[in-house]
Input
Amino acid sequence: MTQVGHPTARALLRRLAVEQAECRVPSLTAAIVRDGRPVWFGGRGRVGDDAPSAATQYRIGSITKSMVAVVVMRLRDEGLLDLADPLERHLPGTPFGHLTVAQLLSHTAGLTAEPPTAWWERTPGLPADDLRARLGPAALKHRPGRRFHYSNVGFALLGELVGRLRGTTWLKALRTEVLDPLGMHDTTPRPRTPHATGYAVHPWADVVLAEPEHDADAMGPAGQLWSTPYDLARWAAFLCGESAGVLCPGTLAEMREPAGVEDGDTWTSGYGLGLQLARLRGRRLAGHTGSMPGFLATVWADAAEGLGVLFMANTTAGMSGTLLPDLLDILEEHEPRLPDEWRPAPADAGLLALTGLWHWGPKPYALRLLSDRALSLEPIGGGGRASRFVPQQDGTWLGLDGYYAGETLRVAADHLDLNTFVFTREPYDPAAPVPGGTSDWHA
Output
């Protein structure tokens, strides 16, 4: 798997070794993906008598949620549900049927974090009917839509939703629609050999305690799966955009959009549609963390850079929290990405004539031609509304981002009409249809 240069690989391995030794992790693995391919793998510690490999299984906990979310988004893309649908529409009689699919995906439904059972991560799970029967009014902790509140229960309901609409179990749907197409054949609901044993490390002595492992049953969609560094590297590549037809790029980008902020005003962590989001050291990352008794794992993807990073460990607690950003920093320091070569590209003469200087009232804007006939409209000098636009079949352009996301740009002979705002070649050009009287500039 290793494809980075030797000095880079050595620096990455040293950082991994420091984490394993200083945090007293029984075994620890990590990998980096670049442009859809694994370029580095490292492992430290022991699984039995052997060093961990890229084929060693670990529990991935809540990373399971991100995979279940992809199946939900596939159902949306197929027209079988709408994200604004209340759960009751697809699961009649379900408690809290007024909560929407989007709220459950983004942890903004207000549901309790844990099910009303014994400590669910350490005990055998309940069937879905039994779990639903235990959910009463007290399980709703916040007004739906008001705030981010992480809910394992919400993803149990989403797993049931997937099973109902697919006519099978959430796990079989996930296997058929996501895991197998991505080649993630070693991602399973229960461990297979070779796998790490989950341990708790004593806080004041160098001894370990084996942690329990069970079938979570109805809570499975919240954190059941086991996986390997190799499979999780494939998942990181998927999150970066190497989707292998599993999900259209626009839907994956939608999942990465912030729907809730976890840490208030600081906004370093949040949640999209089934994906955790983080802003770390100038990077915008999407992925998920995972923890179950005896295991910790995290996978992050920087889609803008085509870069993914992950770790998997068999310890209940004690990791530093800086391992993955440190690995990304080491890669950037030793082998920074080269920019793509610029090459001239053909341009439609009519579109080329549109480029250049335009004005919103007195404010100058630059219109640039992008690839695939897309346009970019940006204020000169900053301090205004910038958006990109893609062409539509009716001759208009649709806003992709910024203030004008979803709005329509129309091109006329002497002006641009952007959702009623008129852009002209000259400031308030009197020859253009600018309302309000604009023909007389004076001192």
